[in-house]
Amino acid sequence: MSLAVPLPVALSLLLAILAPRAVRRTAPATAARGLVVAAVVTSGAYAACLLMLASTLVEDLLPLSTGDGGAGPLGAVAAVLLAWGLWRLAGDLTVRRSMRRRLRGVGRPRGGGLVVAEWDEPHALAVPGRPGHVLVTTGMLRALDAGERRAMLAHERAHLTGHHDRLVSWAAAAAAVDPFLASVRDEVAHQAERWADEDAAAAVGDRALVARAVARAALAGGRPPPATAGTGGSGVVHRVRALTHPLRTAGGGSCSCWRSPPSRRPRSRSSPPPGWAPRRCDGAPTTSDGVHPHRLCDHRGPDRSTMDSGRNRGERWA
Amino acid sequence: MRGHRTHGALAAEVVAALAAAEAPLSPAEVQAALGSELGDEAVQATLVRLWEIGVVARRPEEGRGHVYWPMRDAAAEAARRMRTALAGRRPRRAALREFVAGLRAGDAGPLRALLVRAGP
Questions:
Q1: Nearest to A180 by CA among A38, A23, A72, A24
Q2: How far apart are CA B74 and CA B55, in angstroms?
Q3: Do A233 and B16 touch (CB under 8 A)?
Q4: pLDDT digits (tens, 9 = 90+) for A191-250
Q5: How do strand A124-127 and strand B65-70 relate by DSSP bridges?
Q6: Do A141 and B70 touch (CB under 8 A)?
Q7: Using 50, 70 and 90 to split pLDDT, how confident is the model at A259?
Q8: β-strand A114-117 against A133-137: which pairing, if any?
Q9: CB proximity A275 to B under 8 Å
Q10: Which of residues 4-23 of B touch A (CB under 8 A)?
Q11: Which end of chain A is more exposed for a tag (fewer CB within 10 A), N or C?
């Protein structure tokens, strides 16, 4: 029973700390799904442990209780935390449902699943539903050129076809029950944006165009950051960097290669197909032909070529 | 530009182009805005279909065939409802999934640099 107190909290904190690192090298679709599963399982465990602790409180109050020490104040704290979590969950579900209803009520899409609002403030969002539609203001449309508009529309459609709202809602529900998962919820939201960016890039066949659209739209906003931004603010820069530097993660010195789609991943190192620009993991310039003899960013862990070499093995096993 | 447009995607782009324009556009102007690989007929047919279902309005204009513009009434009404929907407390804003959700201090610099590099 004593383990029931720190375990759920430790699990949640561990997930919150590890999540951003774990998904750094993962495709956004996989990252978002994996994080949501982890968050839901963790919040479930958290709630179950709190429930267990709280139930000892009830046992103590019963006259038939065997009185094996009991959890006393701990049980009370657990009961309060559980009630708070459920209250937050109810609030989150209510707010989301009402927001979705309001956004659906803004207008019925008739031309290509698009509702346009004559408003100078730049907004673009996907309104989930069956089949769901895109809601965009003229302020957003005028901030972008035709190609960027196409990228933006493809991004929003990707949210709809991928049902990203469900993932984000599950993550938000998990974080409502278990407040330690707030950063995981934000990470899921960010990965959903990255996912839609990648889908949009595939749809329009131009990563740089999507990057421009995201940057232009963000600058067009130009308003003070809302307190709710979460990963939103610097998330925009991350997204743009991920689109313009497909082989390196934004920020960190580490590298990731999933972003060059499988079909474009080089089969042989001597002839990378066009569009694939190899870089070294440490960011140092590549050799003149663009291919470094080893330590290319292909994520095979610590330099397999040297590990496999006989000399190295000999040293190791000597 | 690569990538194949679906029927709905083209209609959405046409509506978006008309809504972004300051003045009514002819089919040729819409086509020019959307990219050269599109056929005349595809854009023309989309415009006529949008006009038939009442999403856009049109009038004949000398030398340009018809010119098209979006129905403003619906857009103004949509804006009014959207303002109400978005005006709200913090938790309600958090429930939104927006294309971009605002900037943080220090974000504008890198983004401007990218746009300068990418050209106008």
A1: A38
A2: 9
A3: no
A4: 999 999 999 999 999 999 999 999 888 888 755 444 333 333 458 888 888 888 765 444
A5: unpaired
A6: no
A7: very low
A8: parallel
A9: no
A10: 7-17, 19-20
A11: C
Q: Is A240 on the interface with B (CB under 8 A)?
A: yes
Q: How confident is the model at residue A25 (pLDDT cuts 50, 70, 90)?
A: confident
pTM: 0.77
- The full set of domains in chain B, from first to last, is 7-70 (1.10.10.10), 72-118 (no CATH)
Strand order of the β-sheet with A114-117 is A114-117, A133-137, A124-127
Nearest-angstrom CA–CA distance, B14 and A250: 34
Mean pLDDT estimate for chain B: 81
Helical pair B40-52 and B27-34, crossing angle rounded to 10 deg: 120
Give the pair of three-digit tokens for residue A301. Answer: 């862990």
Alpha-carbon distance of B104 to B106, in angstroms, equals 6
Q: Which residues lie across from A261 on neighbouring strands?
A: none
Measured distance CA(A274)–CA(A265) in Å, rounded: 10
Are A228 and A99 within 8 A, CB to CB?
Answer: no
Asked if residue A8 has a cis previous peptide bond (ω within 30° of 0), the answer is: no
Cβ proximity of A188 and A168 under 8 Å: yes
Give pLDDT, residue A8: 78
